[in-house]
Specification:
This protein is mostly helical and 87 residues long. The protein has one domain. Helix content is 75%, strand content 0%. The protein contains 3 helices and no strands. Helix 2 packs across helix 3. It is globular, with a radius of gyration of 13 Å.
């Protein structure tokens, strides 16, 4: 799967992560979508590097979506902690 596919999945995963995590996220929806893209890339890397999972199978693979959502949640939690500490 290409980087364009991961960006599209990241946008959706970022929106889902924002909907799953309660409370007010720092930066609003645009930041959540960007964090989602970064999280999807990170989730794909974590799945492949640490667990040996082939997360690049196809756009419609549940494994790909799972790792993208997990990475997006992780990055969104970290971003929220960093943004709260600044204020």
């Amino acid at each position: 799967m290409s980087i364009i596919g991961w960006i599209l999945i990241g946008l959706v995963a970022g929106a889902l992560a924002r909907a799953i995590l309660p409370g007010k996220a720092a930066g609003g929806w645009i930041v959540s979508l960007v964090v989602g893209v970064l999280g999807a890339l990170l989730g794909g890397w974590i799945g492949g590097a640490l667990f040996g999972v082939e997360a690049n199978e196809s756009f419609f693979s549940l494994t790909t979506w799972f790792w993208a959502l997990l990475g997006s949640l992780l990055v969104l939690v970290v971003w929220g902690a960093v943004a709260r500490r600044r204020t």
